[in-house]
Write a structure and sequence with these properties.
Length: 212
């Protein structure tokens, strides 16, 4: 019995990993999961409870109570959701509660999953691991443009500060810190357009499929 083909796409916010992962999934006919939504929805549930997302008890309860409707919420993007997601993601109990869901999703039929610890923790045996990144300045500009497209937005400087704070939390947390897997392919999108990024990643994916 062949092992399901899993592609792990990790990297910091606004590096382009979500756009890339969704397109790879469509091209290869694989299910797609934005694992960040799990943590964003958990953080939002904690906020709804009037709790601090960094509170382990509240955050773990929120993670256990997630429903499919939570992933459809319109308020899962933006600085508040980013910060809440980063805080709950640092809690071991939250990660444990969501780990089984992620592994089950990928193990059924293969998948493309994007997040921050897919290649290091969730699927360390993934046949292709990508670490998608970009310079902090480029990432802040991209996120600012995304927010402006939806309406009033914080200043570019504020977005950059919020992103730097989240990067620091994600990189320095004690559980599953953001870092490339040792065998991940690094893809810096700072000076590449989306089509070029996609073609590079697709060539790696095709090669990984043929190698099995």
């Amino acid at each position: 019995m062949s092992t399901p083909f899993v592609i792990a796409v990790d990297g910091p916010a606004a590096a382009g990993k979500g756009t890339l992962a969704r397109r790879l999934a469509r091209e290869l006919g694989l299910p797609y999961l934005d694992t960040g939504l799990l943590y964003r929805a958990t953080g939002r549930r904690a906020l709804d409870m009037g709790a601090d997302p960094a509170d382990p008890v509240a955050a773990e309860a929120a993670a256990r109570d997630l429903t499919p409707a939570d992933f459809e919420r319109p308020d899962l993007r933006g600085p508040a959701a980013d910060a809440a997601a980063s805080k709950v993601a640092a809690i071991p109990g939250v990660r444990a509660a969501l780990l089984e869901f992620q592994r089950g999703f990928g193990a059924r039929h293969g998948a493309v999953l994007d997040g921050r610890d897919i290649g290091t923790v969730v699927f360390p045996e993934a046949r292709l691991k990508l670490f998608v990144t970009a310079s902090p300045e480029v990432r802040a500009q991209r996120r600012h443009a995304e927010l402006l497209a939806k309406g009033p937005a914080p200043s570019l400087d504020q977005v950059a500060r919020d992103m730097a704070d989240r990067d620091a939390r994600d990189a320095n947390r004690g559980v599953a810190p953001l870092r490339p897997a040792e065998d991940a392919k690094l893809l810096d999108t700072s000076e590449l357009d989306a089509e070029t990024v996609f073609q590079i990643a697709l060539s790696w994916a095709v090669a990984a499929q043929k190698a099995t």
